[in-house]
Prior knowledge:
The structure is a single chain. The chain contains 10 helices and no strands. With 293 residues, the chain is an all-alpha fold.
Amino acid sequence: MALLDLLATNTVWLLTFTxxxxxxxxxxxxxxIHRLPLIMERDWRDQCAExxxxxxxxxxxxxxxxxxxxxxxxxxxxxxxALENIPVISYLWLRGKCSGCGIRISPRYPVxxxxxxxxxxxxxxxFGFSWLLAGGLLLTWSLIAxxxxxxxxxxxxxxxxxxxxxxxxxxxxxxxxxxxxxAVIGAMAGYLSLWSIYWLFKLLTGKEGMGFGDFKLLALxxxxxxxxxxxxxxLLSSAVGAVIGIGLIVLRGRDRNIPIPFGPYxxxxxxxxxxxxxxxxxxxxxxAGIGLP
Length: 293
């Protein structure tokens, strides 16, 4: 209780605690981003074998979950100890290399930890010590995981999107971020808007322009923020997508024919709208000359 009282009354302590928490959660998100697609792939393979009534075979892969086996180097299988698993600090101490084989560790791991900490602190600064902060952190951490998984695998796991959608509705039962009517309509409108665009594009071109995971992601954002936020999210996601897409083509020479997932842009736009959507809308209306004085 003493810690809760301190966090509730001292902004510096709250931001510091949130930053440390964000670093630890960022370390766990690295595990989720790497392992969840692998777990899903194994599950799909087992389901396909069962559907095709193939004879059961002895498993060739070691059991895999978010907690087992322990984190290890993918090259030499060196188990990462507690002192080697301290967010950011261990990476700097090891100079970005495995202590077992000396292979370079991807800098993406500490980057995700730092980004998670920075975004968590931003949420804490915006909402202060409240239930709004708890919900905002859960949404932020989930969007980070979804962004990276979709970027790597063009996949938005139902394991994250669907529980998050229902959680948004639960928070808004008490009007946390919007009223429950707006949240329910937002979930429906978010899904149906992209679903309609998907089928229209497919009927006109014969191609699939986006995945069903994008529908669910916009639906969960609508459940958290209400239907009023959907136009801002869609416009922002288009702007973010244009900037990042052009950047990937120019800086990394990415083939223009390689599809770029839309989920990360929706997630980024949704997070921005979550914090500053109302201000963005009012600024735009005033700039257009139709806002309130």
